[in-house]
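If you are new to this repository, start here. Below is one unmodified record pulled from the training split, so you can see the exact layout before writing a loader.
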Amino acid sequence: MSDTILAQDHGEWVEITLNRPDRLNSFTEEMHLALRTALERTQKNGTRAILLTGAGRGFCAGQDLGDRDPAKMDGPPDLGHTVRTYYAPLVRLIRSLDLPVVCAVNGDAAGAGANLALACDIVLAGGSARFIQSFAKVGLIPDTGGSWHLPRLLGEARAKGLALTAEPLSAAKAEEWGLIWKALPDDALMVEARALTARLAQGPTLGLGLTKQCIQTAATSSLTDQLDLEADAMKICGESADYAEGVSAFLNKRPPVFQGR
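And here is the target side for that same chain:
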């Protein structure tokens, strides 16, 4: 794997680190492909939870603009191709994984970096972190799912305010507004993020994966369709070894030992 992405296997869970700290972990094509490979591997090796974070003083500055500088090209870049080939598949992959994906935002998350974090299931941020929809500064629109996630998480007024002004949003305000799960002191971020990911990995991950998919579907589903989806998911859960173990542990007043199946 490219050294632009580091993957540390903790047995039931994997910590994936964006690793271009000298460029604030901004994306190149090589880094995109390496991250996609790391995520796809988790589907094959029994991983039950993922922690995504960044190396150095920031989480991710989005696209490395040096790779898309019109002054260094024969003509304008096809950014639509970039989105369709790299960013959109990355968001779809994260959202489709049937396991929890935790994101620990250490420092600034800007542009596509901010929206990559929002594509994850649970987002924790250090106190010094900022979320910046920096696209307006270079004449672009919020990609990497930003135009979808922002209004759903914040409402239209706040989504437009962030996207049109490119003003930084602090971790504390992001938590207050409901953009992320928790803001934490910087020195506690990785400790809590790793503990949370490990706890999720030991949980009933079949049910957690179905919970994730049900909640994601709700944004575009009718109540009737959602009720049917819940019934289908509950049938799967009810037939699982995890449900049997959970009930047995509850009735016998002991800690459950889930296997994710």
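Two things worth knowing about this chain: The longest strand covers residues 13-18. Residues 205-251 form one domain.
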